[in-house]
Amino acid sequence: MVEELRIMARYRSILALILAVGATFMVSFSSLAATSKAATYTPAQIEQIQRYVPAIEEQRDRLQKLQTFIQKKNWVDVGTYIHGPLGQLRQDMNSLARTLSPEDQKTAREATKDLYGALVRIDQVAKEGNYQQAVSNYRLATKAFDTFLQLVPKA
Q: 140: which residues sit within 8 A by CB, 6+ positions away?
């Protein structure tokens, strides 16, 4: 019986050692995977990407002015603002999306498409004076825009 207890103690020690090595192995590779995304861009690529960022962030700020026009039900200004100050937005976002990593390009293009679609729908419902649909599409537009901005690597 005493011999059996010694054998069990050895097995527990060996099992604990195996679990500790396995846990260390898993933790070391999980941190490697977490840092690999940040390492996908070279400094030159980040510099190129950052050239587009100020114009796009300015457009994000302008989107808030569109919300003001919608809240005031100023439908003429809603349409004018979408075609005027926000008119360059799609081109700028597509240009930036092309500079992203291949993994992020697809998501960036989808977010751009979603944002543009929401702006088109806002313009359409503004012509009808449909406040609820304008607000709903504005929310979709801001969500798509924020999704896009999250893909942009920070300098």
A: 114, 118
Give every CB contact of residue 153 below 8 A, 6+ residues apart in sequence: 38, 41, 46, 49
pTM attached to this predicted model: 0.70
Contact 114, 126 (CB under 8 A): no
DSSP code string of 49-91? HHHHHHHHHHHHHHHHHHHHHHHTT-HHHHHHHHHTTTTTHHH
Candidate from 61-65, 119-123, 129-133 with smallest mean pLDDT: 61-65
Please say whether the beta carbons of 93 and 108 come within 8 A.
yes
User: What are the tens digits of pLDDT across the range 60-109?
Assistant: 888 999 999 999 999 999 999 999 988 888 899 999 999 999 889 999 99
Q: Is the predicted pLDDT of residue 130 greater than 60, yes or no?
A: yes
First vs last Cα of the chain: how many Å apart? Answer: 66
Of 7, 100, 116, 6, which is closest to residue 45 (Cα–Cα)? 100
- Note whether 17 and 124 are within 8 A (CB): no
| Alpha carbons 138 and 120: distance in angstroms, whole number | 10
